[in-house]
């Protein structure tokens, strides 16, 4: 059994339009790298963090907390050192904390000979995610661990469904570098919503799941609407409407807020369209004072990847 | 081309648990029979109604109104006589008016050489359904016309999706012969619902669509929950809780209100379980003063059937 492993822990998109709080998908080429190695000394030790300034104390680090949850259950005869090379900016809305929380438990599970399945890993990772987002949720963790599209059917008991991913589906992400406080993104949501809006939303989600099963890109497009959350949270993202209009004009199948923002995601059929969408949405932000990054990638159906050490 | 046709127009279940207002399925063996024949005289004529006392005036009869909507568009060089042998009791909650509204347009379309597709027929039938239920909806019409499970993605524009039906799925229906006024069933619903309940509902609907695609009976069972509508409408159906408990105890995958009631539906894997469920729920009502009927049948994946004349 290996004593050290290097992994790629992907960025993810949660709250996919009509799938608020339940549907997510996994990105490719954008993610953190982590090296985890066994140590004789029991416990979890964060030994290196590159990229962003995050806490080294295990109990304050999401990767540390999820790892602690795992070893508390597994009780291995060793400890683990974790090195994190963070590429996903915290607060970007594409699952930065989820990548850390999921990556550490995935890597440790590999080093222990895979005693846990993906749902169990998601459960441990939720403990880490909770310290970043103040509540337990799995909508970024599930796609990071399972890959592709995932539907979190329920949190308690934790049940995650893997929804098929049509082959030609590409994501285009824009991350405007503004801060959207999670607390503000939550506070802006109503606690009650009109029944009619809820019906529209679940009709679209049912339809989207059907479309993903049947490779129906046009139906994916007709289903990617969010009448419940977007009207509120889009107010927190400057130029959201213009970005959406430009993206749809360039062929995006659908455009929405990634997670609780500020990133905006698009889905397209084929990489060429996805790149055209990138150009169109860059054009909106490049005339503003806001810095931004964009990414184009295939949907990552594998999730976590083991890299050669 | 035939001048006369005899059809079976099936009963249906709408508002399938988590699929309020959007998801329906089609029953087998329970339905109306209709004979429709061409006449030289233009127009629509209801010439015979057996079973229940319903209006003969075309404009007041749901089968008549939907037929008028069709011929207004088709402008055929003939008229049609309609005989209705009504087996589905009006007000039972298993799509009685939908069977009439859908049957007439299906039959006329056949006699005209099928100029219209199923979605167009549903559109015409909605005009008839509207006079029975005071608003246009398609959640009983769609399964009657398409068969199997259908998801009404949207009414305007009308878009209906056919969701796969697992082979061993059987329905058990109990119709307690009480009156639930549609107006009361509507008035009892809240106009706003908690966002958290909506999320639970759409997680279950997404999960149910996935389960129907993957023939996962256990997941069908875990998805057949209605946290939004049932807590209100079940109050209008005496002994609903006991029926549900008995049904689930007998192996039902899920139990809910059919349409706006008073009928209660169950889904089971295999006819034997479906019959056990029937026995269990009959036992609840047989000690009460309420008359009731029960039905056990396979899910009807064909929808409308042409019978030999």
From TrEMBL, chains A, B:
One term of GO molecular function: ATP binding
Alphabetical UniProt keywords: Amino-acid biosynthesis, ATP-binding, Cytoplasm, Kinase, Nucleotide-binding, Threonine biosynthesis, Transferase
Biological process (GO), any one: threonine biosynthetic process
Protein localization: Cytoplasm
Cited InterPro entries: GHMP_kinase_C_dom (IPR013750), GHMP_kinase_C_sf (IPR036554), GHMP_kinase_N_dom (IPR006204), Homoserine_kinase (IPR000870), Ribosomal_Su5_D2-typ_SF (IPR020568), Ribsml_uS5_D2-typ_fold_subgr (IPR014721)
Main location: cytoplasm
Annotated pathway: Amino-acid biosynthesis; L-threonine biosynthesis; L-threonine from L-aspartate: step 4/5
One annotated Gene Ontology cellular component of this protein: cytoplasm
Signal sequence range: none
Record field: catalytic activity: L-homoserine + ATP = O-phospho-L-homoserine + ADP + H(+)
Superkingdom: Bacteria
Residues annotated as domain GHMP kinase C-terminal: 209-286
Domain GHMP kinase N-terminal: 67-148
EC numbers, comma separated: 2.7.1.39
HAMAP family reported in the protein's UniProt record: Homoser_kinase (MF_00384)
Annotated PANTHER family: HOMOSERINE KINASE, HOMOSERINE/4-DIPHOSPHOCYTIDYL-2-C-METHYL-D-ERYTHRITOL KINASE
Function statement: Catalyzes the ATP-dependent phosphorylation of L-homoserine to L-homoserine phosphate.
Similarity comment text for this entry: Belongs to the GHMP kinase family. Homoserine kinase subfamily.
Protein name as annotated: Homoserine kinase
